[in-house]
Amino acid sequence: MKFKNYQLALITDEKQRQYFLGFHSTAGYVILAPDGITFVVDSRYVSAARKALEPKGIKVILGVDYAPLKAKASEIGAKTVGIDFGNTTVSGLDYLKKDTGFEFVDISNEIAMKMAIKTPEEISYIKKACQIAEKAWLEVLPLIREGMTERELANELEYRFKKYGASGTSFDSIIAFGKNAAVPHHETGNAKLKKGQCILMDFGCLYKGYCSDMTRTMFFGEPDEKFLKAYLAVLTAHVKCAEGIVNGMTGYEADKIARDHLQSLGYGKYFTHSLGHGIGVNIHEFPGLSPKGQAVLKENMVFSNEPGVYFDGKFGIRIEDSAYISDGKYRPFMKDDKSLVIINDGKITRKKLFR
Ligand SMILES: [Mn+2]
């Protein structure tokens, strides 16, 4: 971190602690100083933290208050401390000011920018999280049966995440059958799968604290023309983004590739969310690929490409890969070609709609 108008940074957010330390805890705080990193944590974590972090040169202090922060500040003569206002509560900041007497400045943008550019190690973790998610998804396809509930399908998937080395899900899996798929963030429930319904699965897992994010829309039974046309539109929007997103483009320009394409096919008003979001220790982070996305996409940024169309009361389609920019170009972490999966009478077929 470059220190501008502050001399120390205080990191309190759980995911940001994970990012700066490479160590997970539900408590504690991190002090970033020009001469190194300090982690202050209670007795539940201190011995594990020392073992994991001291070999990396991170100092670990047993503590439950801000005394170590005050000591560090007086050691280097710091009066101004940077903190992320985006995840600091009003009461928390108030307490900090009174307790320490320091001045606090917002460093949310600097942190988001730093976290957006991934190291090779971070990319390898996200890649692994994507590989596990994709493998689990391919494995559950033969288990899909008429009458199965959304939750049952979610369970089959999530069990395999852990089986293949993930620590858990990166967010609550969204499994939506039929008209439930028209709600982009449907809450997975007890709906039973019927013939003639689409199956939308939006899921991801966590590997060494890093997220994957993937969505596939399949069909159970025989899809009609309306579904096939819409699927092809979303798939071509996805592929156009994969081919068109390059280093130096803004999030707005990336989103516009999909938006313009869907608009030209008459689906503009059914694409009701943004194209994508950054992915890291958080499932949603900087940069946004949206009509408001002013951020510039850069080498080693990781993000989702997830165009979708939603027809209220009928069905919804979303196709999502996690990807990153390398050598100036878009590189997906998923290997699947996204040809439509049709499950009919216990048989799985892949329908190539173009090329
Ligand atoms: Mn996503």
3D architecture notes:
With 355 residues, the protein is an alpha+beta fold. The chain folds into two domains: 8-116, 3-Layer(aba) Sandwich (Creatine Amidinohydrolase, Chain A, domain 1), CATH 3.40.350.10; 120-351, Alpha-Beta Complex (Creatine Amidinohydrolase). 32% of the residues lie in helices and 26% in strands. It has nine helices and 21 strands. The chain has helices spanning 14-21, 46-53, 67-76, 90-100, 108-116, 120-140, 150-163, 225-244, 251-264, and strands spanning 8-11, 29-33, 36-41, 59-62, 80-83, 103-106, 168-169, 174-177, 197-203, 205-207, 210-211, 214-220, 276-278, 285-289, 302-305, 308-311, 315-318, 321-326, 329-332, 340-344, 347-351. Strands 4-3-2-1-5-6 form a six-stranded mixed sheet, sandwiched between helices. α6 crosses α7. The model has no long low-confidence stretch (mean pLDDT 97). Residues 213, 304, 306, 320 line the site of manganese (II) ion (MN).
Short description:
The chain has 355 residues and is α+β, with helices and mostly antiparallel strands.
- Main beta-sheet annotation: 6 strands, mixed
Count of helices?
9
Which blocks of ≥5 consecutive residues have pLDDT under 50? none
Tell me the strand percentage band: 25-35%
Largest sheet strand order: 4-3-2-1-5-6
Distance between the termini: 46 Å
How many domains?
A: 2
